[in-house]
Amino acid sequence: MGSTRSMTTRLGLLWVLTVLLLVLFAHGLRTGYLPIEALTGGVWAALLGTGAILSSRLARRGHGKSAIVLLCVAAVVACDVAVVVDSALIYDGAGYWTLDGGVGLPYSYAPLWYPASLLPWFDIFGIDQATITAGDVEWQAEHIAPVAVVLTITSALFIGFVARALFGGWQAGPQRRLIRTDP
What we know:
Number of helices: 6
Strand order of the largest sheet: 1-2
Shape: globular
Radius of gyration: 19 Å
Oligomer: single chain
Low-confidence stretches: 170-178
Mean pLDDT: 84
Strand content: under 5%
């Protein structure tokens, strides 16, 4: 139970950092976006936390490598869903922005927004960027990409925390020597 509490505490602190970074990098510290990014970060943290709890249960049963794979998949899904939630809230929920030509968000390609923003020069699964972004590349560069990068970096940090906790690490012993703490 203590490890779950520690993981939740770390994720909570990382959530606060993530929300602040989302507002800073995606919107230039405009405070009107704080509630939207708090909800985006909340969706990301909830999905990532669920994946981490399932991953830790899998690791306790002796499936450490599978646990890390599950955590990485959970991180990708959490980032992907959070990117869609963020755009939906900004464009359709709050109505702060519209795409070029007033077209609606291309929700049929929503699962591809996250990978497309990280790889803007590639087609994703044979679908070109213009189709994925409904022809509005600025939307991808100015709104999706900063959110995707921040969520990816913070997810990687969290995966590192959890992996270290699952597989042990090095700690200073009473003799001030490093000792291995593997289970």
